[in-house]
Amino acid sequence: MTAIRQGWAILRKDLLLEMRSKEVFTSQFLFVVMAMVIFYFAFSPNIKNLTTVGAGMLWVAITFTSLLGLNRSFVHEKDEECLDGLLLCPVDRATIFAAKFIGNFFFLTTLEVIAVPIFAFFFLTGTFLPNLGWFLLILLLGNVGICGVGTLLATISMNTRARDLLLPVLFLPVMVPVIIPMVLATNYIFTQGESMSELSVWLYTMAIFDIMYVVAGYVLYDFVIGD
Q1: pTM score, two decimals?
Q2: Among 40, 42, 50, 123, which residue's CB has the most CB atoms within a 10 Å radius?
Q3: 52, 83 in Cβ contact below 8 A?
């Protein structure tokens, strides 16, 4: 059985489980919508143009919403002792990481397909369609960084009693090098910035850290999940 088929079997199991229960997507969707509603009513009385603060609000909502999905990605394996059976199978540990990473990436991207239009309705007064391609690239790079480091840290926190508390403590400081350029690049798109050189610097920064996080997760996963 090749690594691709093994990874697909793990990914398919996670997708089917989510399609039946809808636990992760429902909780993430309710959280991100509630966060946007709270942000809107908190800032709209004092700020006439919410576009200027929209980038920060968007990534705060997405980052904290992603923690819900990352936490749930290993709940069934740990609580129902499925992980022990998975580790006994002749499956490379890096394959497990790749399958979990792709699953988390898929769930987060699916959420954004619904959440971003809602965000645009609340916060954007103009249009960013001319820069839609750049915006999608920012979302792609942001999702890769979040899911790359998040999958690794969710595995580490899975083996602790306070896993729901430990994951944000580990995750948020590590994500700072990606979150800052994400917000700056998104703000550039929303406010129709003129300096493409600044945008390229932020995109390169995100790409570099994404590669570092994914490679680190892939290489270290055997050690992390073994403990």
Answers
A1: 0.89
A2: 123
A3: no
Averaged over 60-86, what is the pLDDT?
A: 78
Q: What mean pLDDT value characterizes the chain? A: 83
Q: What is the dihedral of CA 5, 3, 226, 167, to 10 degrees?
A: -70
pLDDT at residue 227, as a whole number: 56
- DSSP conformational letter for 46: T
Each as own residue / partner, the long-range contacts of residues 18-21 (CB below 8 Å, 24 or more positions apart, any chain) are: 18/107
Side chain identity at 23, as an amino acid letter?
Answer: E
Q: How far apart are CA 70 and CA 57, in angstroms?
A: 20
DSSP annotation string for 67-87: HHHHHHTTHHHHHTTHHHHHH
Look up residue 15 and give its amino acid: L
* Residues 87, 83: Cα–Cα separation, whole Å: 6
Instruction: Determine contact, residues 140/105, Cβ cutoff 8 Å.
Output: no
Cβ-based neighbours of 107, under 8 Å, separated by 6 or more: 18, 24, 25, 28, 69
